[in-house]
Structures are given as C-alpha cells and as structure tokens.
Predict the structure of Amino acid dehydrogenase.
Amino acid sequence: MSNFHSRHIAVIGAGIVGLCVAERLLSEGHRVTVVDPAAPGGAQAASYGNGAFISPASVLPMSAPGLWRQVPKMLLDPTGALSVRLRDLPGLLPWLWAFLRAGNRPGNVARIAGDLNLLLRDAPARHAELAARTGQSDLIRQTGLLYAFRDRAAWQAECSVWQIRAECGVVMEDCTAARLRALAPDLSSDYGFGILISEGAHCVDPGGYVAGLARYLTVSGAELRQDRVLGLDLSGGQLRGLRCAGGDLPCDRAVIAAGIASAPFATEAGDRLPLAAERGYHVEIADVPFRLDVPVMPQDGKMANVTTRGGLRAAGQVEIAVPDAPPNWARAEVLLSHLKRSYPALAGRSHDLKRWMGCRPSMPDGKPVIGRASAVPEVIHAFGHGHVGLASAPATAEIVADLIAGRPPRRDSAPFSPARFGCGVALRGPT
Ligand SMILES: Cc1cc2nc3c(=O)[nH]c(=O)nc-3n(C[C@H](O)[C@H](O)[C@H](O)COP(=O)(O)OP(=O)(O)OC[C@H]3O[C@@H](n4cnc5c(N)ncnc54)[C@H](O)[C@@H]3O)c2cc1C
C-alpha cells in the first residue's frame, strides 16, 4: 500500500547511478526494486571499468572552444585521444554538432563547470559516507589525485581551464619535481610538475563497489530483479509500472538510470534526448612491481592511472561511436604503451593484462539529465553522466530523492533539467 511518504519505486539499471539512487530512496523509507538484466558490478556497465577518479576537478566538459578545428583529426585518426568512428558519423551528426557548439559558445565552458561543480564539489565526502554506510570504507581512498605535466610550461599552456577550476573552489597544490617524486616515486622523471587535488578521492575497485552496494541493498530490504526492462507501462496516461522481459512490474515511480540504454525510456516519458556513447577503454596489469598510493593523470595522455585491487589500471580515450560497434583494441594498446613510458619499472616485462571497453553515457553538453520527465512526472531521469558518473552519483541520488519527496531541492537541479534540450515529444493517447 503506497502513501505520500512511502512509495514503490522501480529503478531501471544497477550501475553506480541506479544503486546510489536506490540506496538513498531505501533510506527514506520507500520500497525499492532495481531491475537490471546483468549482475551488478559486471563488465557490461561503465561503472565497472572507469578510471576510479572521484575528483572535484572534473568539472570541465569534453567540448572546448575551437574543438571543431580538430574534426578532421577526430575522423581520420581512429586511435587519437578523441575520435569519431567514421562509419557511425551520419547517425551521430546531430549529437556531434550539439557537442561542438556546447564548448564553442562564449562563456559556456565556465558555465558548465559551475553546473557540474554542484554535483562534484563534495563528491569525495559523499562517497566516503556512502562507503561507510554500506560497509565498504576500504574501497574509497581519500589520498588526493595528482595531475602530472612535463613541466610548468605545459601546465601554463592549459592555465585558462585550471583558472576555471580555481573559480569553482577546487583546492590545488603546485608540486615541484621533488614533491612529484615524493607522491609518485615510480612516475617517469619526464614529468617535472604537478597539481595535487588534495581533496580528491578514488575507488580501488569500481565494479566491486557496485556489487557491494547491491549486496547492501538486498540485505537492507530492496529487491534486485535480474530482468530486462522493455518499456514503461503508461496505460491510462500515467505510470503503472515497467514492462519487463520476465513480466510486468507495477510501481508508483520509476527512475531511469540505465546508462547508455536510457534514451528509449526517456522518449516514452516525453523527452527525446541526445544521448550518445563516448566509448572508453582500460588496460589493467596484474603483476606490477609498485603501487600508486596517489592516482595520477598524466596530462599528455589524458588517462587515469590508478592502482586497483586488480592491478595498475590506465583508463581513458574517447571514441564517439554506436555502443555495440566492435571495440578497437588498438586504443587499449595506446593506453598500454603510454603506461609503459610513464612508469619505467614496467619496461621489458611481460604482463598479465586485461582489456576492457565501455560506454560513457554522454549528453553533448557534458552534464547529466536529472529531473522529472516532461510528460510523465512519476518518471525521473537520472542518466547521461558522461565522464563523471562515478563521482557524481551520490549527488544525483540526493536530487532524485528530493524530487520524489516533493521537497525543495538541497542542490540546484535546474542545470540538469531535460527541458534544456527542448526535445519534448507528444505522447500517444491512452492505450
Ligand atoms: C574509460 C572510462 C573512464 C571513466 N573514468 C571515470 C572516472 O574516473 N570518474 C568518474 O566519475 N567517471 C568516470 N567514467 C564515467 C562513469 O564510469 C560513468 O559515467 C558511470 O559509470 C555511468 O553510470 P550509470 O550507472 O549511469 O551507467 P552504467 O554503469 O553503464 O550502468 C547502466 C546499467 O543499466 C543496465 N541496463 C541496460 N539496459 C537495461 C535495461 N533494458 N533494463 C534494465 N537495466 C538495463 C546495464 O546492464 C547497466 O548495469 C569513466 C567512463 C569510462 C568509459
């Protein structure tokens, strides 16, 4: 029996976003069912293979002023740090156009950074609390995060974006070569300058963290249903439940948190939203003769280097492509060879290596969609977290809980509204 305070809420997707939302809703007394065809923490989800950074500095969108000049390179160099899969170009053109425009409008990068800062400024603290509540404190480490440059001049060449981070209140410490060595003794001496984000944190097992959240939810009373959601049951013009491969699931509210698979559900609820895959890769080496106590982002490679429970992971690359295109493993080789150059102790060794490809669920402006669906207010969008889904999941959950409770939001959620794309669609009449 549902009442104003306690509702049956179905969450579509058991990635980091869906499970953070579920944890929050359960703690507020709701009945929660999470539906996912795959086991939580599995390699099908972006939440499994990411770079593990929980960084208040990740406020900048991928799109930047003048990026359009790199379009030929993006199309012609399939292993460049940012590329578009040529054969997918026709279908991706509208998204790509919106993506290039997002960074090119004057002042927009700073505006987007200010918006993402709403989700990221306290992300390390929120994850530390979540991990403590769910018995996983050993997985979240508040060691800081190190951005490494060849020299101070390389940092100065990017100083406008670091200025934006400073304006967001990100705490940064300049690191001389000696300080860099002290923080990351195994990093190549080719790197002579660094910025330490002292408030940054990381997760030593992103997939394990998700699986642990699922276990916690199950013992705390949520239901995890292994099933594929096929669509929303909107008979009579309002949400009745979810249509699943294994049978219908009646519910009062639904949260769309299916990562890259979210768009068709959003369309059913009245919002045709521009979601595309920025595919990324990782390599993970099991037998490494050192560990990184502080994760490193070598700025020339734009990849996260982090010691996880599985070994040394390098995660990065942006490949704008259809989600189910075959992986281009040459991209994993790019990550591996950069890793070998960055850590001389890896040279000349054979490695026990794992490779992975996954889809960042990305909106063209780099911001997630968090808000009520335009045509079905019982449906809440919580997807499109792009490069920052791990870090921003707890803040997303807080906003979703406020929306479901009908409370004034503790965080401004207007910048994440689906309405910013002006893509409402007329719903079919009652069926
Ligand atoms: C290489 C790489 C590096 C990254 N590095 C970082 C980083 O350092 N820090 C950071 O914050 N973020 C990072 N990200 C981004 C982050 O991983 C994602 O934004 C985040 O994992 C998205 O979480 P999600 O829960 O929305 O989606 P996912 O983790 O993809 O989960 C979606 C879930 O929905 C399920 N699903 C799909 N279809 C259905 C259906 N029909 N019915 C029910 N369920 C369904 C899937 O099985 C899946 O479990 C990185 C991403 C990549 C690829």
Observations:
- The chain has 13 helices and 21 strands.
- The two ends are 25 Å apart (CA to CA).
- Residues 270 and 425 are 5 Å apart (CA to CA).
- Residues 67-114+143-201+276-362 form a domain with the D-Amino Acid Oxidase; Chain A, domain 2 fold (CATH 3.30.9.10).
